[in-house]
Amino acid sequence: MDSAQDAAEGYRPWSEVTPDAARRLLVAAVDAFAERGYHATTTRDIAGRAGMSPAALYIHYKTKEELLHRISRIGHDKALDILTTAADGPGCAAERLDAAVRSFVRWHAAHHTTARVVQYELDALAPEHRSEIVALRRQSDAAVRRILTEGVASGEFDVPDVAGTTLAVLSLCIDVARWFSAAGRRTPDEVGALYADLVLRMVGARPRPQK
Amino acid sequence: MDSAQDAAEGYRPWSEVTPDAARRLLVAAVDAFAERGYHATTTRDIAGRAGMSPAALYIHYKTKEELLHRISRIGHDKALDILTTAADGPGCAAERLDAAVRSFVRWHAAHHTTARVVQYELDALAPEHRSEIVALRRQSDAAVRRILTEGVASGEFDVPDVAGTTLAVLSLCIDVARWFSAAGRRTPDEVGALYADLVLRMVGARPRPQK
DNA sequence: AGGGAGGGTGAGCAAGCGCTTAGCGTTCTC
DNA sequence: GAGAACGCTAAGCGCTTGCTCACCCTCCCT
């Protein structure tokens, strides 16, 4: 069901993971981690979902944690790419904020299993992997903050607390991964549109500079 | 550090749990679950934090899951109490929404360890316990939705999608438990004030009826 | 003083965990 | 067509897990 959306975006998930068996294992791990959590997932479960014996996992990955790290890294790269593309894109601050929130939320909804692992299993990473990922997250924060700062400077936005509002905007988007269900009534596009509107209200977006 | 805030609110956490040893175990479990997650926490760790032998846990609780259930139940009761108190309180819709978000967020920040367990370990509950808790959550949702509906009816709010906005407001507040750190720069009160303002903007709160 | 109840411990069981190793079949190389 | 390389499996090792059990200590009641 994600594949239609992905094809439309020209985005084929996990295509960067080779060989095929390694990708199947990784996709199985994403499903298992999202469903039961990293610690509650066994390597036997992952291998089983991929249609392999438990030992097959260790041909392609040194440890279970390496699997999580790969997932987290790829997911964070994608999330950061979405945000920086919007932040550095064309249009006024309001248009870029709309695009950022809309696409970021859409990704979290459409790929909510992946996003759940990416956003909620950070603490399960080994310390050195964790700090690598945290650096990526700081870049995401910076991208959103940049849009807000520019909007305030141009007079489009009314934001008393840029740092706090940045935090809130990202938090709002990220939490979509927790509650979104494919069985629910809303499509990723609808949630993206709703959230973009809510965020523009949060920053007090006005039509254009008014000095 | 929570205790000053709690005393000010006349709220002493876990006072309903007796005897003393059972409370100590429960508090230890909250810390451990919040820090490492339910599945990654061992019963030996919980007992150790409470200064007891591993077997002592099973005098007061039948299983590790019963501990989680007790924590989740007490936490959800408190959260629901906060929201319904605000929703049924005095004042116009904007004042009640402000109070609801402010106190709900303040609780999530001040008790972020408890809140983290309450909000993010739902899936670790046994099915029958899970559905009991889900029912409480639906009541929380209803309380917020009530405020929004009344605000729209009175002309105070401009909300095109009440159900979606309710979801977003709760989501925003709940996610505070994920990112809030006592070591951070913001106090629970400050975050509560910031979020109350952001939410009032989200619902397009206007001074008063304007027909 | 004696007895029972409740809170606690040390040792340990069965099961399941992450991960390893010896070996098998297939494919590619020269 | 021999032999290395690769992808994979069956079996299992050492360890940790949630939980149990036999026993002990300290009260309190009579």
UniProtKB/TrEMBL annotation, chains A, B:
Pfam family, one: TetR_C_24
Gene3D superfamilies: Tetracycline Repressor, domain 2 (1.10.357.10)
HTH tetR-type domain ranges (all copies): 19-79
Stretches assigned to coiled coil: none
DNA-binding interval(s): 42-61
Stored InterPro entries: Homeodomain-like_sf, HTH-type_TetR-like_transc_reg, HTH_TetR, KstR2_TetR_C, Tet_transcr_reg_TetR-rel_C_sf
Keyword terms of this UniProt record: DNA-binding
UniProt-listed PROSITE patterns: HTH_TETR_2
SUPFAM superfamilies registered for this protein in UniProt: Homeodomain-like, Tetracyclin repressor-like, C-terminal domain
PANTHER family in the cross-refs: HTH-TYPE TRANSCRIPTIONAL REGULATOR RUTR, HTH-TYPE TRANSCRIPTIONAL REPRESSOR BDCR
Protein name per UniProt: TetR family transcriptional regulator
